[in-house]
Amino acid sequence: MSATDADTRTTAQPPSVVVEMEMAPSRATILLVEDESFVREVTCEILRSAGYRVLKAGNAREAMQAFQCHGEEVQLLLTDVVMPGQNGRDLARDMRAICPGLRTLFISGYAENAVTRHWSRERGGFYLPKPFSVQSLMRKVSQALNGGGKARVQVHREKRA
């Protein structure tokens, strides 16, 4: 391979995204509950690359098992609303019965409605519609972890060397 081919291959790669956040707990632990494996894995990778520790669960039962083992470490429950078996709202209710101060970010591919908005706000939760961008995910996670305060999120594109 010539040097020109190597240069072309390197510059043709998509740029990486670096997200900087003000006031974000750098080592916060997030319990991610998502029944769609692709969404779960991509979301996990985004969060881990931002410095968060992520516990993954594919359903409410797995999430409760993880919470029973690591509940004291979890600062944020990031859960899909609609899942087979127990839904995300009921899961959050059950986890808050154990840990009343648990912060929650609900995600859903279904249209947000007034009931979901009210339920989320009333219980100190946040809502993020799917599909979401890296920037919107990081903004909502930061807001949820910081108690709703505004967070500044900047996305910088860097070329890979």
Explain this structure to me?
The protein is built from six helices and seven strands; from the N terminus they run αββαβαβαβαβαβ. The chain is α/β, with parallel strands linked by helices. The radius of gyration is 18 Å and the shape is globular.
- Sequence stretches where pLDDT stays below 50 over 5 or more residues: 1-24, 149-161
Q: Work out the helicity level.
A: 40-55%
The ordered string of helix (H) and strand (E) elements is HEEHEHEHEHEHE
Biggest sheet overview: 5 strands, parallel
Report mean pLDDT, rounded to a whole number: 78
N/C terminus separation: 17 Å
Approximate strand percentage: 15-25%
- Helical region count? 6
What's the arrangement of strands in the largest beta sheet? 3-2-4-5-6
Oligomer: single chain
Number of strands: 7
Derived from helix and strand composition plus strand pairing, the structural class reads alpha/beta
Radius of gyration: 18 Å
Outline: globular
SSE arrangement:
Blueprint: H1 3-12, E1 16-21, E2 29-33, H2 37-49, E3 53-57, H3 60-70, E4 74-80, H4 88-98, E5 103-108, H5 114-122, E6 125-129, H6 134-145, E7 153-158
Parallel strand pairs: 2-3, 2-4, 4-5, 5-6
Antiparallel strand pairs: 1-7
Short descriptors:
single chain; 161 residues; alpha/beta; five-stranded parallel beta sheet; two-stranded antiparallel ribbon; 7 strands; 25% strand; disordered N terminus
Kindly summarize this structure in a few lines.
The protein is α/β, with parallel strands linked by helices and 161 residues long. It is built from six helices and seven strands; from the N terminus they run αββαβαβαβαβαβ.
